[in-house]
Here is the input.
Amino acid sequence: MSVLVFVDTSKGVSKAALEATYYGKKVAESTGGDVNVVTFGNAGDLPDLGKAGAQSVVVASGINSPDPQQLTRLVTQTAENKGASIIIISQDPVGKAVAPRVSARLNAGHAAPAIALPDTSNGFVVKTNVFSGKAFAHVNLTSDKKVISLLPNSIVPELGDGSAAVENFSGDLGNPGITFKDLKTQGGSVPLPEAELVVSAGRGLKGPENWGIVEDLAGALGAATACSRPVADIGWRPHHEHVGQTGVAIRPNLYIAAGISGAIQHLAGVNGSKTIVVINTDSEAPFFKAADYGIVGDAFEVLPRLTEAVKKFKASN
Amino acid sequence: MKILVCISKAPDTTSKIDFTDGNTKFNESNVQYIVNPYDEWYALVRGLELKEANGGSVTIITVGTQADEAIMRKALAIGADEAVRVDAEPSNGLFVAQQIAKYAKENGFDLVLTGKETINYNGSQVGGMVAELMDAPFLSLASKMELNGTTATVELDVKGGKQVAEVNLPCVVSCAKGMAEQRIPNMRGIMAARTKPLQVVAADAVNGGSEIVSYELPPAKAECKMIDPENMDQLVELLHNEAKVI
Ligand SMILES: Cc1cc2nc3c(=O)[nH]c(=O)nc-3n(C[C@H](O)[C@H](O)[C@H](O)COP(=O)(O)OP(=O)(O)OC[C@H]3O[C@@H](n4cnc5c(N)ncnc54)[C@H](O)[C@@H]3O)c2cc1C
Ligand SMILES: Nc1ncnc2c1ncn2[C@@H]1O[C@H](COP(=O)(O)O)[C@@H](O)[C@H]1O
Here is the structure.
């Protein structure tokens, strides 16, 4: 079965785009078929998707806003043109708007958010996050056509030196249903769900004026910053940094939490992290039970010390 | 203004998650069900505010079994006018969406509101599917929304920021943090909810194309390694050589 991958490349080929393409390649290997990518927006680096295994990239250059209805037609028409019955969509905000529409349009079962490759030994079973990361479900997609929304940071792509052929989409995408207006950017250069390293802090930091030590460590590591919910609710930090069950769910390689108690709703959104470091003055804080490395100490002393140690390490490596 | 709010049940956020029957069923004993927080705090309350400002009605719809009527009454107590339950086990997202879209099309709504996601299944899928089945625009991850006649202006969470978007009704909107503030039902609301109409309709026999075959719990964490707070060089060394994350 052939695979079609849909990614947003309007700002260039992102890490998440390479992950989804590589995931598509691995699925195509196990089901027999080829893997093509469809996208909109061309920053000139589309052939790079070949490194992750794409044979071709179909691009709808005429589209300059991510209208979900037009993008759904783009995906389903390209799937038909390429004879693809498995569709992989990276689960970013654009993917969240498009994947369910594609699934409904094709009457295809949808697995979301997928965190591993399908097991095709008995059916077509995809592992997904459920209960906000407190458990996993194995979802069997029983329909002929299948849609998978892939969570960022779920697969490590092995990149080769291929180059994908770029084709222009030709077909009727209809009118957009949504008029997009001004965009306000916020946050750092790496979106939190895609960040590999995250430094996060909670109420233990006492006030927004103290976040300098958090940002210094994030800066030294090249990490994104995050926070607990009360910190966002009282306005110390912007809402988009709030992680947990009712905030962003993340699964970075490294999650450093300072002054966060580790309530079950906080853990739900971060316990998919590969390595967790907890800094807390209270040795009984529940977060230590979910941590790989723990430091019982005052964040105001430990964070600057850790920043210095990271800088020293970076300078000598 | 006819508003339809999709309400789903979810286990209380402090619930301990485990499974029975060879990891094929969620263990419901000792689990307290609540209205899915996104549906309650954001979709329902914003729906009520829009009705208060523009006139009209708020109907809630749940695809679920009779046991779900408790959380439906809670939504009525918060202020919804009437409730509809599509009588079925919500077996997967597309199944649920097909039921909701059918009801919405037959009864002509101007606006359908959903939560950003259910905290048990985390699919973020039902809203977009309903929109596709209604052939209507889908505004995903809205954190603000205003109505002006038949035009809706929303602010959406997009990659790296927020974007304003405009759309003509009817449309489907998934509601995220920022849309509204939680409302606590008062005694009068709770009393009134008992007699508000709750209609039960039969489900359409559709399949939805997916089924959960089993569940799994994450592996237990190994013992946490404690590091001397004076010795951050050791932590960096372990993160580099042992965890291999920096
Ligand atoms: C329905 C629901 C959904 C929720 N969703 C979320 C969610 O998505 N995300 C989320 O984060 N929370 C969520 N919560 C809230 C959650 O229950 C906790 O209240 C919250 O996570 C606590 O935040 P905190 O750890 O920053 O603060 P606290 O619990 O107040 O913890 C502060 C910690 O800092 C430590 N500390 C104090 N001083 C220092 C110091 N100088 N150095 C180091 N450590 C120090 C303390 O020992 C303490 O452990 C939710 C709650 C509910 C009911
Ligand atoms: N069984 C259901 N009945 C009614 N609405 C639902 C149901 N399941 C999900 N929804 C709605 O769809 C949204 C997204 O759910 P999900 O796709 O499961 O993440 C929820 O926040 C609800 O508003």
